[in-house]
Design a protein that fits this description.
With 234 residues, the chain is mainly α. It contains eight helices and four strands; from the N terminus they run αααββαααββαα. Helices cover 44% and strands 8% of the residues. The strands form two sheets. Strands 1-2 form a two-stranded antiparallel ribbon. Helix 4 packs antiparallel against helix 5. The longest helix is centred in the middle third of the chain and has 33 residues.
């Protein structure tokens, strides 16, 4: 997958085909509004400090494979970029007002969700959900390598015990607060090609990290003697 990403720098289609995955495109975001599914330090560093933006904001090169959590990997491409700028207050007044309203609504939704979560964990969820006029939707199957916004939150939940669901709170792509009920966990399988691609990516990353550490140690330990050179020049 690493070779496919570097050989085809016009898109991620080649890397996606090799990995057997679909390319997912996000909306606009900044340093302080990184989507939850991309909210990992190595990913953030690559996006904002990795040289993935071309000249004058044009699309740049694809990233190398970035591994996080041991079993999760990303290949990134910045399709559009806008430089940071300050807009006049008159142009953003309505937007600021909407953001404040949305933030307050989101905070209230999280408070309400936390109360319901407490009730669910105490075995009083049916009454609390009914009183709030809410109910769980149809069951869904999520994979760790899936692109669903809730995958990260779901896989952070404790395993269900004795046939009882494990409950938690997450957010979807639209920023809505979602109550989660994890009913069952099944061990996953990975095709051999994906295993090889992931092992290759991890090996390359580890080699790069080891090389950078070696060079850093060599620089720290290096000693330069100028006396003989100066004497010869004199």
């Amino acid at each position: 997958m690493s070779d496919a990403a570097s050989n085809d720098n016009e898109s991620l289609a080649g890397a996606a085909q090799v990995a057997g995955l679909k390319v997912v495109e996000t909306g606009w975001f900044g340093r302080d509004s990184l989507p939850q599914e991309l909210n990992f330090k190595p990913v953030s560093e690559a996006i904002f400090n990795g040289g993935l933006v071309g000249e004058n904001g044009t699309p740049g090169s694809n990233s190398d494979i970035i591994t996080v959590d041991g079993d999760r990997a990303f290949v990134l491409r910045i399709s559009e970029h806008k430089p940071e700028a300050v807009k006049p207050l008159a142009d953003v007044k309505a937007q600021v007002s909407d953001i404040v309203k949305h933030t307050k609504a989101e905070q209230q939704a999280k408070l309400d969700a936390d109360k319901l979560l407490t009730a669910l964990k105490e075995g009083k969820g049916d009454e609390a959900m009914k009183a709030a006029g809410l109910s769980f939707g149809a069951p869904q199957t999520l994979s760790r390598t899936g692109q669903e916004a809730l995958s990260q939150s779901v896989f952070a939940l404790p395993l269900p015990q004795a046939g009882k669901p494990s409950y938690g709170v997450g957010s979807d792509l639209q920023g809505n607060v979602v109550l989660l009920a994890l009913d069952e966990v099944k061990a996953g399988t990975m095709p051999e090609e994906q295993k090889k691609a992931m092992i290759q990516g991890i090996t390359q990353n580890n080699a790069q990290i080891a090389f950078e550490a070696l060079m850093s140690n060599l620089r720290k330990a290096a000693k330069i003697k100028l006396g003989d050179i100066i004497d010869q020049q004199q």
